[in-house]
Amino acid sequence: MREWTPLVVFVLGAGTHRFSELLRTIDGVSQKMLTQTLRDLEHANCVQRTVRPTAPIAVEYSLTELGRTIVTHSL
After folding, report:
1. pTM, whole model, 2 decimals?
2. By C-alpha distance, which of 16, 31, 19 is closest to 56?
3. Smallest Cα–Cα separation from 46: which of 6, 9, 19?
4. Mean pLDDT taken over the chain
5. What are phi and psi for residue 5, nearest 5 degrees?
6. Would you give the DSSP letter of residue 50?
7. How far apart, in whole angstroms, are the C-alpha atoms of residue 49 and residue 43?
8. Domain count along the chain
9. In this predicted structure, what is the pLDDT of residue 75?
10. CATH number reported for the structural domain that contains residue 62 in this entry
């Protein structure tokens, strides 16, 4: 587990965010580390990545059911 994982899960627990919103919200995380953390969480079925066909393309991240159980059990 990456050091940023708990914070990313916590922020996404408040709702869906675009990548740039996450980057601004999570102080100190680099673009590379956020990308890797989101990929790890997506691979673990904790985060869902949704691509919106807009111009420019919007990519949103949200917690899956499994991801929400992590937040619920952490409180």
Report:
1. 0.89
2. 19
3. 9
4. 92
5. -55, -50
6. E
7. 10
8. 1
9. 57
10. 1.10.10.10
Reported as a pLDDT band with limits 50, 70 and 90, residue 7 is very high
Cβ neighbors of 34 (< 8 A, separation 6 or more) are: 4, 8, 19, 22, 23, 26
36 — phi, psi (to 5°)? -65, -40
Asked if residue 45 lies in contact with residue 51, where contact means CB atoms within 8 angstroms, the answer is: no
What is the arithmetic mean of pLDDT over 14-31?
A: 96
Question: In whole angstroms, what is the distance from residue 44 CA to residue 58 CA?
Answer: 22
Residue numbers of the domain that contains 18: 5-74
Q: What is residue 71's predicted lDDT score, i.e. its pLDDT?
A: 79
Residues in the chain: 75
